[in-house]
Amino acid sequence: MNDNSSVDLESSAADDSGAGIDVLRLNCIAQIISARPITVRLVAALLAQGSQPEAQETQESSCRGEGRRRVKPSRVAATVLVAIFVGTLAGCDWSKRTVVDLGLVDAPAPPPLAVEVLCDGSRGSTCSVSTLALVLNPTLTAAASRPGSIVRLWMQGSTVDRTRIVWAATSLKPQRSGRRAVQDEESRWVAKSLRDALLAARPSLGCRGVRSPIAETVTRVSLATAPQDAERWIVVLSDGLEVSDFANFECANLPRASTFVQSLGRKRVLGPDSLAGIHVRMCFLDLGPVDGDRCPMTVARALGVRALWAAALAAAGSRDVQVTDGAPTLSNAVPQNRKGNNP
């Protein structure tokens, strides 16, 4: 970002030659503030008026019979606007922050989102219609405000090949202008998308499964394509109880974090940098009994499960990690590269 350039407005207004504004400079102005066509036309009109100065002869005093040129107000206004826009003779090389702060141009639009919502809908897990709605509603609201955002709903299967996308949507740029009209259009999109997503998820909720390959499934989801400039998120709704060839978090002794990470890495599951640049949230890890009361759940075990996931997701290079027993924080307020459990 370039530093602000100081402009001598007084000398610009006094110099008659300043009326001949370089065409390239005007094109530069039009390009940068193309989001404001009315402002562009206003500047062009003022420049057209300001480029035709009138010399009016006025009698100043009996001792000074000279005429002086009066600069028309429109000429001054045009010069001031040009000075603000142009800044210096360098053309377009001025601070973008300044023109944004002045309200002359819109702030750069945030990048679109690419959010993968993974639902572990197996019997006894915590992904349900209610918890899914708690995640999808703010996710869809954020996506609606960033046209081009993608939200996909994945249902975890008992094997990786049975994990599938059951619903997806892409937010569109509002057809109408005006804050109220835009908000109404976004609200309708959020409501319809939420209804369709929950309807698509219902058949897969509460199914009984003997395996819960969470780590492999997250790795599968991370391979999904996304727009190159998108801000990527993976949100996992699960009790976090991995049951696979890597570990049994339900009933067996919990492994050490280093052992768990190494065993995953040997099979290229959640390997280094596999989650690079991705915000990861694992939520609704409930401190409840294992399905059918097959195994007791203690506070120590629950905390151990959280620590294992925090370590594995961080080792995979995620941008930031949160592992919680409630709804996730769907913002990037967590400092980047903070790798750890955030209960």
In short:
With 343 residues, the protein is of the alpha/beta class. Helices cover 36% and strands 11% of the residues. A six-stranded mixed β-sheet has the order 3-2-1-4-5-6, with helices on both faces.
Give an overview in words.
The structure is a single chain. This protein is an alpha/beta fold. Helix content is 36%, strand content 11%. Strands 3-2-1-4-5-6 form a six-stranded mixed β-sheet, sandwiched between helices. It starts with 8 loop residues before the first helix and ends in a 20-residue tail after the last strand.
Count the E strands: 6
Inertia-based shape: globular
Number of helices: 10
Low-confidence stretches: 1-21, 54-67, 333-343
User: Per CATH, what is the topology of the largest domain?
Assistant: Rossmann fold
Mean of residue pLDDT values: 78
Q: Strand order across the biggest sheet?
A: 3-2-1-4-5-6
Number of domains: 2
Residue fraction in strands: 5-15%
Give the CA-CA distance, first to last residue. Answer: 37 Å
Q: N-to-C SSE series?
A: HHHHHEHEEHHEHEHE
Helix content: 25-40%
- Report the CATH C-level class of the largest domain: Alpha Beta
Q: So, CATH architecture of the largest domain?
A: 3-Layer(aba) Sandwich
Structural class: alpha/beta
Major sheet details: 6 strands, mixed
Strand and helix layout:
Layout: H1 9-14, H2 23-32, H3 37-50, H4 73-86, H5 96-101, E1 113-119, H6 129-144, E2 150-155, E3 164-170, H7 179-201, H8 214-222, E4 231-237, H9 257-266, E5 278-283, H10 299-315, E6 320-323
Parallel strand pairs: 1-2, 1-4, 4-5, 5-6
Antiparallel strand pairs: 2-3
Helix pairs in contact: 3-4, 6-7, 9-10
